[in-house]
Amino acid sequence: MEFSGDRFDVVVVGAGIMGSCTAYEVAKRGEKVLLLEKFDFLHHLGSSHGESRTIRATYPEDYYASMALESYRLWEEAESEIGYRVLTKTPHLDIGPAANKSLQCLIANCEPNSIHAHLLDRSRLRDMFSGAFQLPEQWIGVATDAGGVIKPTKAVAMFQASAIRRGAVLRDRMEVTDIKRDEEGGGIWVSAATGDRFWGRKCVVTVGAWMKKLVKAVSGLVLPIQPLHTTVCYWKIKAGHEKEFSPEAGFPTFASYGEPYIYGTPSLEFPGLIKIAMHGGYPCDPDRRDWASGFGAPVDSVIPWIERVLQGRVEAGKPVVEQACMYSMTPDGDFIIDFLGGEFGKDVVVAGGFSGHGFKMGPAVGRILAELAIHGEAAGFDLKHFRLRRFGEDPKGNAKEFEDQVSYPNHE
């Protein structure tokens, strides 16, 4: 294999949102960084593409709020540096049965994290959002100001451009096939299918749905990460109601707790359409997707929800636009952010299993990964819930006080 000749402080493998944010954060700290991507930059084969992602600070788990709020700040900081916007601010609304444990935990986490929340009954919620939401009996809502819609492909491009401006080197169509310790001089050798080899003092691996395959290939360690093929749907707003669902009218990003878990964004990407989707999907091999699985149940589950909650304002017959995406699920739905350990010690950092809710956290995760690689620790973040080896202690991972939120077959 051919040595590229360049030596880097950090080699980042995977140029989705997490890898791109990491490369930017490493370059911002004055370190020499290389970002490698298996496919073309800004490809649509993983989890960092598409028309929109939600940002929210409300979570049933108490350890995500601070990360989300820090990400919100870092999104705005990156926008200010590049000179254009990728985040549209909106309110955020969580709804569901008043007795739902996830919703109860979410409400309890607001005050300790300084999240100003409005607890709404059916009548007050209807008034706040111009009657768009018609909650069933015994349902409640929680509204906050910490919401928004992110343009994902544009956002990834923003962090890549900012990283380049700060001296980062980016290479795509560079599939990493091996990662080894440099036994002679220290550091890490990263090998690609092209025959190229790159040397880094440290390495960060964040390859989304390919995490399980790559980590097993280079270390023998099997991460419990299950890729899911999921479907994002856009539905037609009924004539005369289009403006009610716009960010300008104050329509929120939203999450509906219960079975199924439904989420959505204001009408922004396609005029007259609104994104409403089920949080779930079907297990898949990221290299052998048939691009058809999952267009049944995830779509069908949304129809009765629309008829029940957005009655008379959104056409529930079938979605107008359907787009494919992937999740990388862990058993507990929590991230993996840790040193690979073993023969690699603290020289290789891994980040994956973002379980369908990680994109919003990209800037904060990038900061964490950069600091772990450079300094061996991330100041200001408690990463105990994201430990790699928690699954060796309990295959289910972190204990939760509430039910699972993501739906997929064979999931216990």
Automatic annotation (TrEMBL):
The Enzyme Commission number assigned here is: 1.5.3.1
**The reaction(s) this protein catalyses:** sarcosine + O2 + H2O = formaldehyde + glycine + H2O2
Q: Which GO terms describe its molecular function?
A: flavin adenine dinucleotide binding; sarcosine oxidase activity
Q: Tell me the domain of life.
A: Eukaryota
Cofactor section: FAD
Q: Name one Pfam family in it.
A: DAO
Q: Which InterPro entries match?
A: FAD-dep_OxRdtase, FAD/NAD-bd_sf, MTOX
Keywords, sorted A to Z: FAD, Flavoprotein, Oxidoreductase
What range(s) does the FAD dependent oxidoreductase domain occupy?
A: 9-372
Keyword check for Oxidoreductase, yes or no: yes
- Asked if the keyword Flavoprotein belongs to this entry, the reply reads yes
Q: Which family does it belong to?
A: Belongs to the MSOX/MTOX family.
**PANTHER family hit by this protein:** FAD DEPENDENT OXIDOREDUCTASE DOMAIN-CONTAINING PROTEIN, PEROXISOMAL SARCOSINE OXIDASE
Q: What is this protein called?
A: sarcosine oxidasee (formaldehyde-forming)
Q: What is the lineage of its organism?
A: Eukaryota, Viridiplantae, Streptophyta, Embryophyta, Tracheophyta
